[in-house]
Design a protein that fits this description.
single chain, mainly alpha, Cytochrome Bc1 Complex, Chain D, domain 2, 17 helices, 36% helix, 2% strand, disordered N terminus, binds heme C
């Protein structure tokens, strides 16, 4: 359609077709700014960081056919974007330290071993790594996970990478930290299915090699072989599961670390107010928000209501971290969206006043999200040899 190339066509609504029209770009910009001023009620109850208007992009060079055709929104300058990004985000720390559980090499080594040990499950066939595969960015790639007796859970398994930074654990934030979280899966009947924590400790005590490892990790404890020390060891290991990537390099001053597309995506992430919910070092994980902010999201899951019993918490979930998001499909608590494109569309539709993205905007956003893919420290996650079972180690129980 030749008419779509006429410079004075103003589209009635924002659509993929607006790409080639300079006026549409202005219209989009205008709408973006209106959105910033009137649409920021989304997260008010949580005192989120507010999106600030982004610096006005430089006008495209007149008569530059390439710019008009390929990119309606010019890439913002990397230096400007660095300043903007530093207002909302921070580089990942080397480890997520906690005063309640100082990290030591001995604890980490024990925690790593326990993380991989399937004998801590009823049928000796499920470990933490079954659902949070460390060489797969900490997820299992399925809608909902499979545990004991191949039973399915009711929520998608989030990644363990960078999770220790979150304000709380699980989609509904029902546990305060990774230490408290670690005790849950052991006795969840559809996960590791142990009868209780006493049974878990009985198994651990029956494996001779663990006694020395617990002693080394908790030298001051009279009786180091406890479920709380299990949790501390696993927690200490998880506190080191950080994945810095190009975005951290960018935040630390390397203005070339992000592509042009990623820079535009970052600007859009701020303009479209994604940043009011997904911010901080883990680009999320800092607050609870309702899924279906602007439009009812179809889910049976009551979310945080199950934790607080407060009707206002219905369908409220922890805002997930977007670190490594390109690697952790499928998406959302229900694992209902198979691709990042769908997930981004869903967010636009249900969480933001913007409502939808053009193809180009979505591609830019995804380029930005891909810059959040970090590096896995292969040495850190290497599976250690497991200590051998003893004569009293319970046999696998398939029932
Ligand atoms: C059978 C699969 C399965 C096993 C085994 C399992 N998990 Fe999970 N994990 C999940 C699911 C599903 C969730 C989300 C559940 C929810 O939010 O209600 C989860 C949540 C988590 C979280 C919270 C992350 C976040 O962003 O909130 C952490 C941390 C975690 N698991 C660590 C572990 C550890 C450590 C073990 C081993 C002791 C373990 N998991 C065993 C499936 C599993
Ligand atoms: C009002 C708060 C809010 C805003 C604004 C928001 N999000 Fe989200 N986001 C959430 C919550 C809450 C979830 C988890 C929802 C669920 O699973 O039920 C989520 C989930 C996601 C997920 C899936 C994460 C995963 O691990 O499954 C992606 C991707 C995402 N958001 C991207 C974006 C983008 C891009 C924007 C801007 C267009 C945005 N979000 C705006 C709150 C928000």
């Amino acid at each position: 359609m030749s008419i779509s190339l006429l410079p004075l066509t103003v589209p009635s609504r924002l659509s993929a077709g607006s790409r080639a029209r300079p006026l549409a770009r202005l219209a989009a910009l205008g709408l973006g700014l209106v959105a910033l001023t009137v649409g920021s009620t989304a997260c008010d109850n949580q005192e989120p960081m507010r999106a600030r208007p982004a610096p006005a992009p430089a006008p495209a060079a007149d008569g530059d056919a390439k710019v008009v055709k390929k990119a309606s929104r010019p890439a913002p300058s990397a230096d400007q974007m660095q300043l903007l990004a530093k207002k909302f985000f921070a580089p990942l720390p080397a480890r997520a330290e906690s005063p309640n559980n100082p990290i030591t090499a001995e604890k980490v080594s024990l925690g790593r071993t326990l993380y991989y040990d399937p004998r801590l499950s009823k049928n000796h066939d499920v470990s933490c790594n079954t659902c949070h595969l460390l060489d797969k960015y900490g997820v299992d790639g399925t809608k909902v996970s499979t545990g004991h007796k191949r039973q399915l859970g009711d929520r998608n398994a989030p990644t363990v990478y960078n999770a220790a930074l979150h304000l709380a654990q699980f989609w509904d934030g029902r546990e305060p930290d990774v230490e408290a979280q670690a005790k849950g899966p052991l006795i969840n009947p559809v996960e590791m299915a142990m009868t209780d924590h006493v049974a878990v400790m009985k198994t651990i005590k029956s494996i001779p090699g663990y006694a020395d490892m617990f002693k080394a990790a908790f030298p001051e404890d009279k009786d180091p072989l406890t479920i709380d020390n299990f949790a501390k060891a696993v927690g200490a290991f998880e506190r080191g599961l950080m994945t810095p990537g190009p975005f951290d390099t960018f935040l630390q001053g390397d203005s070339k670390a992000l592509s042009k597309e990623a820079l535009r995506g970052l600007q859009l992430f701020v303009d479209a107010q994604c940043v009011t919910c997904h911010a901080g070092a883990s680009i999320g994980g800092t607050q609870f928000q309702k899924i279906g902010n602007l439009k009812e999201y179809p889910t049976e899951d009551l979310g945080r209501f199950k934790v607080t019993n407060n009707p206002a918490d219905t369908k409220v979930f922890k805002v997930p971290s977007l670190r490594n998001i390109a690697k952790t499909a499928p998406y959302f608590h229900d694992g209902s969206k198979a691709t990042l494109e769908e997930a981004v569309n869903t967010m636009a539709e249900y969480q933001t006043v913007k409502g939808s993205f053009t193809d180009e905007e979505r591609a830019d956003l995804i380029a930005f999200l891909e810059s959040l893919t970090g590096e896995i420290d292969q040495e850190y996650i290497k599976q250690p040899p497991l200590p051998e079972s003893g004569p009293k180690t319970p046999k696998p129980d398939p029932n």
